[in-house]
Amino acid sequence: MINNLVKLAREENDYATESFLQWYVTEQVEEEASPAEIIQKLKFIGKDGRGLLMIDKDLAARVFTVPAVTEP
Question: What does the pLDDT average to over 25-53?
Answer without folding.
Answer: 86
